[in-house]
Design brief:
The protein is of the alpha+beta class and 273 residues long. It is 29% helix and 29% strand. Helix 1 packs across helix 2.
Length: 273
């Protein structure tokens, strides 16, 4: 009886210098993005966390790694690793052809961050499932151009507003902050103008609840914005400053014109009809 070899994913990185060498910081960053992508695929396949990703081989004379997904415990199906590896490679291939609807929706954004941009010093990345006869997936300049062109085409923008709390700001390179909205995504990145600096810092210092107006960006197949180009910041009152029901008593004693509330409301509805 022959035992099936465990699934393995071969990953190779090629830098943009003459030797094809890869910068260490970019290698570490890209590996982290790939692991995040594998984990997202794992959750879509298994509906839970079930695998560890172990480097079992370093390929000589190239920035290459062989990674093996291993079940965390016996409750994880034996073929789980094979499913995840194949789905990951297939999903990355779909990205390069702009077939975003063929990629698990919960994984799409995370997988898109694996693709090197023109600002990176990464010329190409190769993926191959060890033991498969299929050609390796090569994320080269052509792949990157096709992906970013189609990704930009399907990214949409609209003017709107988001309510939440500001709890992060970055002033090192660009003026950016982060809002944590009431519903939807955990957080949304925002970029703001120099003249809005004081208002942002005031909202942060006072932990103010705010409503941010501006241009909202929606990535492909996403129901929630991931970025706001801030146009206006409105500071909202604290809950303790809002009027209570008891404060509204006797504010408009003649509102119902002497009728009881039920009769008055029924007349208003009849007029609307």
């Amino acid at each position: 009886m022959t035992t099936r070899k465990p699934p393995r994913l071969y990953i190779r990185f090629i830098g943009d210098d003459e030797e094809g060498d890869v910068r260490l910081d970019e290698l570490a960053d890209r590996l982290e993005r790939i692991v995040n992508g594998l984990r997202e695929i794992e959750r879509s396949v298994l509906q839970k966390r079930g695998l560890n990703y172990v480097v079992v081989e370093l390929v000589n004379e190239s920035s290459g790694f062989v990674v093996e997904p291993r079940p965390i415990n016996r409750d994880v199906p034996m073929n789980a690793g094979r499913q995840v590896v194949r789905t990951f490679k297939r999903s990355m291939a779909h990205l390069g052809k702009g077939r975003f609807d063929q990629v698990p929706s919960t994984s799409l954004d995370t997988l898109s961050k694996i693709v090197p941009s023109t600002d990176d010093h990464m010329r190409r990345i190769e993926f191959r499932v060890v033991g498969e006869k299929l050609k390796p997936l090569v994320m080269d300049e052509k792949y990157q151009k096709t992906f970013f062109d189609l990704w930009a085409r399907e990214t949409s923008y609209e003017y709107g507003s988001v309510e939440g709390s500001l709890e992060a700001v970055n002033l090192h390179k660009d003026r950016k902050c982060r809002i944590y909205p009431i519903i939807g995504p955990t957080s949304i990145d925002c970029s703001f103008k120099a003249e809005q600096m004081d208002q942002v810092l005031r909202a942060l210092a006072g932990r103010k609840w705010v409503r941010i107006y501006g241009e909202l960006r929606y990535k492909p197949r996403s129901n929630f914005a991931d970025h706001i180009a801030v146009d206006e910041i409105e500071e909202l009152p604290d809950e303790k400053d809002l009027p209570k029901l008891s404060d509204l008593r006797n504010m408009s004693p003649g509102l119902t014109e002497g009728k009881n509330v039920r009769d008055y409301l029924e007349e208003l509805r009849a007029e609307d009809e």
